[in-house]
Amino acid sequence: MNLYIWIKWLHILTVLIFFFSHGTSMTVAFQLASEKNPDRLRALLDLSRRSLSQMSMSLMALLVFGLILTFMGPWWKQIWPWLSLALLIGMSVWMTWQSRTVYSPIRKALGLAYLTGVGKENPPIEPVSMDEVNALIAKSNPRLLTFVGLIFTLIIVWLMVFKPF
């Protein structure tokens, strides 16, 4: 077996790790609407937050392995790997922004540490009423995040499998 095959295997492995760790956040996003206990909501949001480090590390690893593969193979002169990279970065930026816009206010309302700006950590404040928390949760749209993520992922996989240009 040559090195290219091993790097490809690592690339696929890190993609799987990314999706496994990302599944935690997706499950939490869908579960929030049906949960009414503030302590359980806090626990769910903390669980989701804990999965972010594995998600981020695996995303960085899959990017590195993907770039290595691009230059190891005859792909760096073609358009599809660069388009895949641009789509992945664009999707990641949009999903991070969208998720922070939705879930940081919920964390803040529940009295948890929350992020603002470009990742500025803010300390917990006094929780608000559950009516306000429920109103924020009602504004969330995990289906939109799932749909966008799925469509972009399918396009990226199509580009990698079929290498159209």
Task: Supply the key terms.
165 residues, mainly alpha, two-stranded antiparallel ribbon, 6 helices, 2 strands
Write a short abstract of this structure.
This protein is mainly alpha-helical and 165 residues long. 75% of the residues lie in helices and 4% in strands.
List the helices and strands and how they pair.
Blueprint: H1 3-31, H2 38-50, H3 52-72, H4 80-109, E1 114-116, E2 120-122, H5 130-139, H6 142-162
Antiparallel strand pairs: 1-2
Helix pairs in contact: 1-2, 1-3, 4-5, 4-6
Number of separate domains: 1
Spans of at least 5 consecutive residues with low confidence: none
Q: On the 0-100 scale, what is the average pLDDT?
A: 96
Oligomeric status of the shown chains? single chain
By helix and strand content, what is the structural category? Answer: mainly alpha
Number of strands: 2
Overall spatial form: elongated
- Helix tally equals 6
Going across the major beta sheet, what is the strand order?
1-2
Strand residue percentage:
under 5%
Largest sheet: 2 strands, antiparallel
CA(first)-CA(last) distance:
27 Å
